[in-house]
């Protein structure tokens, strides 16, 4: 097994050419740095041999979506949890992308599949800041809620 951190962030881009207008690698690095700062406030010792992979899924949408279900890989002792990061179109924000960039018109972020968190598009003036800030907001909300791994609830146990 690799010597990866107990909690790690990876990205999936579901928007064509998003990497041409936004530095997703920088956002992913920021997210992993944020996780490093959160780790002392998360009960990571309860993970034991398990690892948690947080997948940032960049797609068209209007809310940050915290996945209600995770994928568990018992043989690898890994659990993956997705957070939908909404990428606005031009109708949602002046800095949004044209419709032609979106593979699908919207990700299904109904309440039975995701816990919604307001994306607050109006608070930002550019797409890079919007996505980076919503990634941090999504990660914080995820760890406030927590996830169960091997019978233990992994979450923030101290305020950040």
UniProtKB/TrEMBL annotation:
Pfam families: Imm9. It comes from the Bacteria. This is Uncharacterized protein.
